[in-house]
């Protein structure tokens, strides 16, 4: 039986503040050019740096594409490595977006938990990518910065029940080129898929075992 293709959505952000070219979108476009192989149906899109746009775009991405995984990529002027974010935060959104807006409540979801973790163990992914000598250094963070990156990540974790990931990339040439970032992103997402596949097959095994219990 042909396994159906895995549907993966990967997003980057539009330019904002001092980031006249947003390296996250450059990296995502490079990833699209490289592809994730025959078994993966990859959909990419550019996300506006606006809270309200994120609120309307993300539910439609999850609903329309029914992805197994959504990976958001954002730029961080502080990053010098490709940084895997483990969790998204609900509160603390005071910084104004590209429309000079911020949520009155300063949070994502009025009734949501303070923090939602990805079901993916970023430490494992980080170690595997660093051990594979791609020439790109990966690190892990637990603070996505309380701006649109964090806001988007939390929203996706909430909508996707943890089946989301966030990757911060440095600005271009600090130290990586767009091509480097695309390669790094591909390596990271492939490890994410390996990890997801591992946890899925464990669930399937358990289900199969249970079916045998029944007379």
UniProtKB/TrEMBL annotation:
Its biological purpose: Removes 5-oxoproline from various penultimate amino acid residues except L-proline.
Taxonomic lineage: Eukaryota, Metazoa, Chordata, Craniata, Vertebrata
Alphabetical list of Pfam families matching this protein: Peptidase_C15 (PF01470)
Gene Ontology BP term (one): proteolysis
Catalytic activity: Release of an N-terminal pyroglutamyl group from a polypeptide, the second amino acid generally not being Pro
Quaternary context: Monomer.
GO molecular function, one term: pyroglutamyl-peptidase activity
Source taxon at top rank: Eukaryota
Record carries keyword Hydrolase: yes
Alphabetized InterPro entries for the sequence: Peptidase_C15, Peptidase_C15-like, Peptidase_C15-like_sf, PGPEP1_Cys_AS
Enzyme class: hydrolase
Organism: Amphilophus citrinellus (Midas cichlid)
Active-site residues annotated for this sequence: 149
Name this polypeptide is given: Pyroglutamyl-peptidase I
